[in-house]
Design goal:
The protein is an alpha/beta fold. The chain has a single domain, classed as Class I glutamine amidotransferase (GATase) domain (Rossmann fold, 3-Layer(aba) Sandwich). Helix content is 26%, strand content 30%. The protein contains seven helices and 14 strands. The radius of gyration is 17 Å and the shape is globular.
Length: 241
């Protein structure tokens, strides 16, 4: 991890993969721009955590291909075949951690069993850049809206690095918007933010610094409980294109 006195960053993406097959590396390049510079600058070390999807080989191949194109030194952490007993040392050697999508509940259970949750918090508090989409977005908040459990979308307690709740896929999955609004209205989940696919919340430390997007029409929303229901405020991101 590059030495820095600045707080760490979190880029929570509403939905987007890390494949460059769609020719859209904008959010990935934005995340890499958050790394503190070194002179001479080595290739950034980027690590993929794919526990939410079960660490499938095709995701790993795509990750390595993508970040090779971006001139990064790519690696991944498997919790089924750990590369070392020193997971703290392994993760602290990285510059940026990318968390993939999938089953957030299962991912968090694995992380907690291996103490990865505490390691990530320590690394972030010492300046590391963390990012991810879907499960890799909601995991950083106190709560998230998840499809981890079969049936209806439900609230899920998460890591709590960031206050409030988070809901991804706001424009691409029809039940996300009405479910999130209902859960907030009923007090079953805290006020928070929702993001369309391609929109991302950029936190510096625990402060929401900026909202950015890789799609011109992607939006974010602040959803809050009110005395007579729920309020949704549309937030226009800065388009990175």
């Amino acid at each position: 991890m590059r030495a820095t006195q600045a707080p760490g960053h979190i880029l929570a993406i509403g939905g987007a993969g890390f494949s460059l097959t769609d020719g859209n590396p904008l959010l990935l390049r934005y995340a890499l721009s958050l790394l503190p510079p070194l002179d001479p600058a080595p290739r950034p070390k980027v690590c993929y955590l794919g526990q939410a999807s079960g660490e499938p080989l095709d995701h790993l191949v795509t990750f390595y291909q993508t970040f090779s194109v971006l001139d990064c030194e790519a690696t991944h952490l498997s919790l089924f075949k750990p590369p070392t007993a020193d997971l703290r040392g392994f993760l602290f050697a990285q510059d940026l951690i990318y968390v993939g999508g999938g089953n957030t509940k299962s991912m968090l259970a694995l992380w907690r069993d291996w103490d990865v949750d505490h390691i990530l918090r320590d690394a972030w508090e010492q300046g590391m850049v963390l990012m991810g989409s879907s499960a890799g977005s909601i995991c950083w908040f106190e709560q998230g809206v998840t499809d981890s459990i079969p049936g209806d979308l439900t609230p899920l307690p998460c890591l709590g690095f960031l206050a409030g709740s988070d809901c991804p896929h706001y424009d691409s999955e029809p039940m996300r918007r009405p479910t999130y609004q209902r859960l907030v209205r009923e007090g079953k989940i805290a006020d928070g933010y929702a993001c369309d696919d391609g929109a991302a919340l950029h936190y510096e430390g625990t402060r929401l610094r900026e909202i950015v997007s890789s799609r011109p029409n992607a939006r974010a929303y602040h959803v809050t409980k009110t005395a007579d229901g729920v309020n949704e405020t549309e937030l226009t991101p800065r388009y990175l294109g």
